[in-house]
Amino acid sequence: VDVIESQWNVLQSHIQDSRDFTELVGFHQEYLSALISQSFLDIGSVSRILDSIMTLCLQFCWNIENQESSQNTSELERITEEFNKKSNSLYTILRSSRLAGSQRAPFLRRFLLRMNFNSFFEATARGVLNVVRPRPSLPVLNQQ
After folding, report:
1. What are 103-106's contacts with CB under 8 Å, separation 24+?
2. By the 8 A CB rule, do 111 and 93 touch?
3. 137 assigned to some structural domain
4. Residue numbers of the domain that contains 4
5. Which residues contact 102 (CB under 8 A, 6 or more apart)?
6. Which of 127, 71, 57, 121 is nearest to 95 (CA)?
7. Residue 7 lies in a domain
8. What does the UniProt record say this protein does (predicted)?
């Protein structure tokens, strides 16, 4: 959200100051490039993990919406476990990346701060959390 909103404001400012269509096309291209770069989508490993996380979110939602019995509970638990693994992998990749010394460092720091606001991912990545987290109970929908 930070990236999209800030870059959208920059684009709007450029649009107001533009004089011709060619300039507009250039500003739009800069906007798209900034979104991709500042979201780290041009890094293959990050892009693949984000894609798989989004797929897991869609699977989770689909399972919740179509849950007819408690049979889906094991599938929801599998999705949750996979989501936790992927999100920890994303955090680890971003922390170990060479991005810290690049021009993208401020964007990386902001993203990591938002992702790790309560230090959960940092503790998990370091193996500090040796306690098994209790799984949230999944409500069984459509019980009669």
Report:
1. 104/37, 104/38, 104/40
2. no
3. no
4. 1-39
5. 108
6. 121
7. yes
8. Component of the gamma-tubulin ring complex (gTuRC) which mediates microtubule nucleation.
Q: What is the mean pLDDT of residues 52-66?
A: 94
Tokens of 125: 């990545």
51 lies in the same domain as 79? yes
At 62 the pLDDT is 93
Mean pLDDT, the chain, rounded, equals 83
pLDDT at 93 over 60: yes
Q: In the structure encoding, which two tokens stand for residue 91, read together?
A: 């955090």
The average pLDDT across 85-103 equals 80
**Rounded distance between C-alpha atoms, residue 120 and residue 109, angstroms:** 16
Under a CB-based contact definition with an 8 Å cutoff, are residues 95 and 125 in contact? yes
- Number of domains present in the structure of the chain: 2
Give the relative orientation of helices 2-17 and 21-38 as an angle to the nearest 10 degrees: 170
User: Can you say whether the dihedral through the CA atoms of 2, 129, 86, 84 is positive or negative?
Assistant: negative
The pLDDT assigned to 70 comes to 66
Whether residue 14 lies inside any domain: the answer is yes
